[in-house]
Design a protein that fits this description.
The complex is a heterodimer of chains A (about 270) and B (about 300). In chain A, the strands form two sheets. Chain A has a six-stranded mixed sheet with strand order 6-7-8-3-9-10, sandwiched between helices. Helix content of chain A is about 35%, strand content about 25%. With about 270 residues, chain A is an alpha/beta fold. The N and C termini of chain A lie far apart (about 40 Å). Chain B has about 300 residues and is an all-alpha fold. Chain B has a single domain (about 70-295), classed as MetI-like fold. Chain B is about 70% helix and about 0% strand. In chain B, helix 5 (about 150-175) crosses helix 7 (about 190-215). The longest helix of chain B has about 35 residues, at about 10-45. The radius of gyration of chain B is 25 Å and the shape is flat. The termini of chain B are far apart. The chains are: A alpha/beta (about 270), B mainly alpha (about 300). At the A-B interface, helix 3, strand 6, helix 4 and helix 7 of A face helix 6 and helix 7 of B.
Chain lengths: ~270, ~300
């Protein structure tokens, strides 16, 4: 078991190499170098406006959907730069799934919510089995097995978010990106989602953006602390950068940077 | 010390009363034409409704014993409007999809939106003259001149801006999160639009389409230049390439006849036309109400 973990630690599934992302003329984040390891949960923390969500969205090319957003540098996934001109963003998103801040189920039945992604990705197996398995993995099966034909909107917020997780799992991605998945949820639902994440860790790599430092501490193996500094020319605009990246334990017990120490102890943010 | 009681004769209160009654009179005047028009048509036209009206051909004017029925015009209006819908709905919905989903708000899409607004303001007779010049006078449609097909094309020009605009607006109302959700599970743009965004916007698009149809069905001017008029039953597919009657043009022609029988027929046709456009409009309101409900789910 220990051997496996060590081996996994060597495997970088996703690497950012000198990535800078801009909205129009304004740089949002600058010169990010970062390696995400296979099978880990990595959390991205930092004050508002430091670009952590921007970085997360760049990992499966969701930023393509935002007008004027451009990226410099390389994002290596499975040995390929996903920003290469020949890469199809649709293929990238099939292998790197995403769960959003607001639960956003489709206006369809619970069953169809899960079947949709699988079907368009050419899934040929037994759909009933897949729906059941995905819901079980997202810890939602026992709560909705009797109402699979009800609308996805009939569920509570926390259940909807787990439905969105189940929907993402159903397409068997290699990485799941989560953008503040619990910020719209109550503490009990949050706890359930965190439990779900621990289960998912066995099969998937998870990268999560969170504002909740306790959550980062509870769920993640690695933590990346992003911070924002004012531009050198001093017109008040801010640019984000990766301040510190280490194991969660180290970030929270003995951070190297002073700003990290200040952020996790609540002095700013 | 002024009394706290209401003073009937103070200039302020008199002025207030005058202004209130003035605005009330204005609103009555503005609603009167609608009430008179509808009741007049209902009374004048409603009296002429007989079963034969729907089955017979109109008799040529001059034979003032019996005017006949409006069957060819009724069927003609249905056919011409259907042709217009077949052309305008796919093109309009497609154009709306481009504007709302694919275009990124650049100069090209702004130009298209502006153009659509201009097209919506083009007088209907211009659409008729345009199709006359393009189709009728050139005999480009297999040598036929005035035809139901040309009439449908003229009406489709009038429907097009309504359909494009409502599709564009309807799709813009679909929350972006839904698009992200679909793209996030690896759907392509086209699957997302076809399976997620279009169904979500379906009812508001349908409402716009129905309103477009209602507008087109009542148009006269474009049809005078394109479909002209016919007294004879529509018997087969080939009739599409010949002159075709329509309710609006029938009213126009027969209302100007000096014979009483023809005038009555025009009243009857007005009754049918107003009633059908009214019901189509009500239908679109019901559709819109349904949209409101589903959004709140």
């Amino acid at each position: 078991m220990i051997k496996n973990t060590k081996k996994a630690q060597k495997n970088n599934i996703l690497s950012l190499e000198d990535v800078s992302i801009s909205y129009g003329k304004f740089e949002a984040v600058k010169n990010i170098f970062c390696n995400f390891k296979k099978g880990d949960i990595t959390s991205l923390i930092g004050p508002s406006g430091c670009g952590k969500s921007t970085v997360l969205r760049s990992l499966n090319r969701m930023n393509d959907l935002i007008p004027n957003c451009s990226l410099k540098g390389t994002v290596l996934f499975d040995g390929t730069n996903i920003y290469d001109k020949r890469v199809d963003p649709v293929e990238v998103r099939r292998r790197i799934g995403m769960v959003f801040q607001q639960p956003n189920p489709f206006p369809k039945s619970i069953y169809e919510n899960i079947a949709f992604g699988a079907r368009i990705n050419g899934y040929v197996g037994d759909m009933d089995d897949l729906v059941e398995l995905s819901l079980k993995k997202a810890a939602l099966w026992s709560e909705c097995k009797d109402k699979l034909n009800d609308s996805g909107y009939s569920l509570s917020g926390g259940q909807q978010q787990r439905l969105c997780i189940a929907r993402t799992i159903a397409i068997e991605p290699e990485i799941i990106l989560m953008d503040e998945p619990c910020s719209a949820l109550d503490p009990i639902s949050t706890l359930k989602i965190e439990e779900t994440m621990h289960e998912l860790k066995k099969n998937y790599t998870i990268i999560i953006v969170t504002h909740n430092m306790q959550q980062a501490l509870r769920v993640s193996d690695m933590t990346a602390f992003f911070n924002a500094i004012e531009y050198e020319d001093g017109d008040g605009g801010k640019v984000g950068y990766l301040a510190e990246f280490n194991s969660t334990k180290k970030i929270f017990s003995s951070p190297k940077e002073k700003t990290t120490q200040e952020y996790i102890s609540g002095k700013f943010g | 010390m002024n009394s706290l009681f209401y003073q009937k004769n103070s200039s302020r209160n008199i002025g207030d009363k005058v202004f209130t009654s003035l605005s009330l009179i204005c609103v009555v005047i503005s609603i009167l034409p609608l009430i008179f028009l509808v009741t007049y048509i209902l009374i004048k036209g409603g009296a002429q409704i007989t079963p034969e009206l729907f089955t017979l051909e109109p008799n040529p004017p001059g034979d003032d014993l019996d005017a006949g029925g409006i069957n060819p015009a009724l069927i003609g209006t249905l056919i011409i409007t259907t042709i217009a819908s077949i052309i305008a709905i796919p093109v309009g919905v497609g154009g709306g999809i481009y504007l709302a989903e694919y275009s990124k708000g650049g100069p090209f899409s702004r130009f298209i939106r502006f153009g659509v607004n201009v097209l919506a303001g083009v007088p209907s007779i211009i659409a008729g003259v345009f199709i006359y010049a393009l189709i009728v006078s050139t005999k480009i449609l297999f040598g036929s001149m005035y035809s139901g097909l040309a009439g449908g094309m003229a009406l489709s020009i009038l429907m097009l801006p309504t359909v494009i605009k409502t599709t564009d607006e309807g799709l813009k109302l679909v929350p972006n999160e839904l698009r992200y959700a679909s793209l996030g599970v690896g759907a392509s743009m086209y699957t997302t639009i076809l399976k997620i965004t279009l169904p979500s916007a379906f009812r508001s698009i349908a409402t716009g389409v129905v309103l477009g149809i209602a507008r087109a069905a009542g148009e006269t001017a474009p049809l005078i230049f394109t479909a002209l008029f016919s007294y004879y039953y529509i018997t087969g597919f080939g009739d599409l390439f010949y002159e075709m009657g329509s309710l609006a043009v029938l009213i126009y022609n027969f209302a100007l006849e000096p014979y009483d029988a023809q005038n009555k027929l025009a009243w009857a046709a007005s009754f049918i036309l107003v009633l059908s456009i009214l019901s189509v409009n009500i239908f679109s309101r019901i559709l819109a109400a349904l949209t409101e409900k589903t959004k709140r789910v």
